[in-house]
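Q: How do we represent a protein-ligand complex in a form that can be generated token by token?
A: Start from the inputs.
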Amino acid sequence: MKSIVMKDIRKNYGKVEVVKGLDITVDSGEKLILLGPSGCGKSTILRMIAGLEDITSGELYLGGQKVNHLRSGERNVSMVFQNYALFPHMTVEDNITYGLRINKVNEDEISRRKTDVMKTLELSGLEKRKPRELSGGQRQRVALARAVAKQSCFLLLDEPLSNLDVQLREHARKELVRIHEKFGQTMVYVTHDQVEAMTVGDRIALFSEGKVQMLDTPQNVYNCPANVFTAKFIGSPSCNIIGAREKNGFVEVGNQVFSLSAQWAGCLRGKEDLCLGISPEQIELRETPRDNAIKGVVRYCENYGHKTSVFIENGGTELVASTEESRFGPGDVVYMTFPQDKIHFFDKKTGHNVGYPENIARSCENDSLYKRRIA
Ligand code: ADP
Ligand code: MG
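Then emit the structure tokens for the protein with adenosine-5'-diphosphate bound:
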């Protein structure tokens, strides 16, 4: 039983509330990602779980035990900090084993754990080096090795890969998942990087301004965004969100209309203040007119090699489409279709997804989305 339960957890700094009521259960052995823009409260939440920051109100349970008033050392947690926080005057092996000696683990056991984590994290041979004699990637692995060697039930990671270059980050990401498979701790992983969130997480809690916007699997967060914030945060380039209104089974976009499926039309009937959401990679782009397509003019293209982002103007609205082809250029007239099972509609005032799943059978199978959604 290694679950983490947060019940209406709040955090104030003076009069400012930076965490505004968290109700999250992290299952035993789960990898939960706290994702969100800088300053939204991710580190504060992690530090409250670790016991490095007081909880203003609410209850925190680790492994079934209420821990609000326990010191960090009594919580069975280990944490990896963004800046690694290694002891500069200690060797790699001393950095890894220092905490174990403080906790009076016996020397044979210390030696066994040290050898094991150093091998797993490919640090063998670096035992006697000081942190300044290591590369960024090696320092990051030492910080991780130190946390893993503690063999605590809860592994907390605060943007552990953000100081690494892109290639190293990809490698380290895979390594982290492998380590988790081997040791099976309950993991809370903070990042602002959606790729890390999508690839590492069992579930993602997406935050904005101290509140959860959506809590679900990476697939559901991507396929069925609960609200406009989620749709815009996930995906690169991000989801197109454009003003739209339903009228007699058609939807107006810019100065044109396209027809809706009977299901969508029924679901949206009479709803005027809507936003349409469509991911750039879901827009089908052609050079010739076809049924139910919206006409636009290409303004700008960004070629990434494997795909191109095509920025298209349609009656004062700008959309971006991703395509594997690079034949489009500024001034080209294009025809866009929006597959009916890939579009989302959001309430303009609340930002909530109005379509899924109550009224429409979507390609996404998990119907627990709205039950688990918190915002
Ligand atoms: P994130 O990790 O998501 O970037 P943080 O949890 O570090 O965000 O910070 C959330 C908010 O709380 C920010 O507005 C930040 O300025 C504020 N904050 C963080 N630590 C303190 C502190 N010790 N005193 C006052 N405000 C703080
Ligand atoms: Mg932070």
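Confidence is low (pLDDT under 50) at residues 357-375. Residues 166-183 form the longest helix (18 residues).
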